[in-house]
């Protein structure tokens, strides 16, 4: 809506416009240029698909280029540089690292989960499971229970409307389960919990020995695998995690998170972690060190913005 954008730029009259990630809009850039506002793109990322689209309209961006770009990876920086050849493009740590691990658990779900989980059995979580990978996750579930029956496995579907389908899948495989909403006292034996209540996954991570993070067995972008890792659980993801590529492959190289290519190797990794438990404090330290080593993006951005105000003083 160019008319609305024109009015907004005129009303606010910004010295500097700071845009996040991939907020690249021709009308906005045009009126900011008319207003002589400086344009920053920070935490910049550009997927392969978007890069192809923007490259086709490169002639347009020659006249609507931002003043400065800070990308979250060398690959993103390279893509931006090809579109905006005349612009200075540098890299920065992703600002998302600044907030990881700073949220404290809500005491209410924490207390509720404590009351239902047995303290003497390991907990495996199959988290954020998507519709497209349900069949594979059932295979993981059967394999890990067969190899290591003395555990509790919590299945968290990504979407609550899949609960009824999960009931049917588990029943058809002769897998007995408890609905999370129906548990009123601590479980006294191994089994499966089908988690049918909202808002408890992040808290449950703190009780888990092993976590498989779904959305990653099929090309669906993946889910956040840092959250369970900082809770010192052995964390496994599948091969697809495009939405979290900003985390960088170092997280796998350093062993903070384990990446596997298919359901079989994921199941084997879970079994190994249960059979030979790792030192939880060592895992937590490893995760914290990784996060801290990737922080600093916010400070870099703020310094650049503040320096750019010098010309207005």
Give an overview of the whole structure:
The chain is an alpha/beta fold and 313 residues long. The protein folds into two domains: 2-93 and 296-312, Rossmann fold (3-Layer(aba) Sandwich), CATH 3.40.50; 107-293, Glycogen Phosphorylase B (Rossmann fold), CATH 3.40.50.2000. The protein contains 15 helices and eleven strands. The protein has helices at 2-12, 26-34, 48-56, 58-61, 74-83, 96-99, 107-116, 134-147, 163-172, 201-205, 226-229, 250-253, 263-275, 280-293, 297-308; strands spanning 16-20, 38-44, 68-71, 88-91, 123-129, 152-157, 178-179, 191-194, 210-213, 234-237, 258-259. It has a seven-stranded parallel beta sheet with strand order 7-8-6-5-9-10-11. A four-stranded parallel beta sheet has the order 1-2-3-4, sandwiched between helices. Helix 8 (134-147) links the parallel strand 5 and strand 6. Helix 1 runs parallel beside helix 2, helix 3 packs parallel to helix 5 (74-83) and helix 8 (134-147) packs parallel to helix 13 (263-275). The longest helix has 14 residues, at 134-147. It is elongated.
- Report the radius of gyration as a whole number of Å: 23 Å
CATH superfamily of the largest domain: Glycogen Phosphorylase B
Helix/strand-derived class? alpha/beta
Number of strands: 11
**Sheet having the most strands:** 7 strands, parallel
Instruction: Specify the CATH class of the largest domain.
Output: Alpha Beta
What strand line-up does the widest sheet have? 7-8-6-5-9-10-11
- Pick out the low-confidence regions: none
Number of structural domains: 2
Order of helices and strands: HEHEHHEHEHHEHEHEEHEHEHEHHH
Shape: elongated
What number is the mean pLDDT? Answer: 91
CATH fold description of the largest domain: Rossmann fold
Level-2 CATH architecture of the largest domain: 3-Layer(aba) Sandwich
């Amino acid at each position: 809506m160019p008319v609305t954008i024109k009015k907004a730029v005129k009303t606010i009259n910004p010295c500097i416009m700071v845009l996040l990630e991939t907020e690249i809009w021709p009308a906005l850039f045009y009126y900011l240029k008319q207003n002589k506002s400086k344009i920053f793109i920070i935490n910049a990322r550009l997927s392969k698909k978007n890069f192809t689209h923007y490259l086709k309209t490169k002639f347009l961006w020659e006249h609507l280029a931002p003043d400065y770009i800070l990308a979250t990876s060398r690959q993103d920086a390279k893509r931006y540089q090809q579109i905006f050849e005349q612009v200075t493009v540098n890299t920065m740590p992703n600002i998302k690292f600044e907030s990881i691990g700073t949220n404290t658990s809500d005491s209410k779900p924490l207390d509720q989960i404590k009351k239902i989980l047995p303290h003497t059995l390991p907990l495996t979580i199959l988290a954020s499971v998507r519709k497209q990978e349900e069949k594979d996750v059932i295979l993981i579930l059967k394999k890990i229970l067969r190899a290591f029956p003395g555990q509790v496995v919590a299945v968290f579907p990504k979407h609550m409307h899949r609960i009824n389908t999960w009931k049917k899948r588990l029943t058809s495989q002769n897998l007995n389960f408890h609905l999370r909403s129906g548990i009123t006292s601590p479980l006294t034996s191994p089994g499966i919990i089908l988690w049918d209540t909202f808002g408890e996954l992040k808290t449950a991570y703190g009780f888990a020995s092993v976590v498989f993070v779904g959305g990653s067995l099929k090309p669906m972008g993946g889910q956040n695998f840092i959250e369970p890792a900082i809770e010192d659980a052995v964390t496994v993801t599948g091969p697809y995690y495009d939405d979290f590529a900003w985390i960088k492959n170092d997280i796998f190289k350093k062993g903070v998170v384990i990446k596997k290519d298919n359901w079989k190797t994921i199941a084997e990794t879970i079994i190994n972690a249960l059979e030979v438990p790792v030192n939880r404090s060592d895992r937590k330290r490893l995760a914290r060190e990784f996060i801290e080593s990737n922080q600093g993006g916010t400070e870099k951005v703020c310094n650049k913005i503040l320096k750019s105000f010098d010309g207005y003083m």
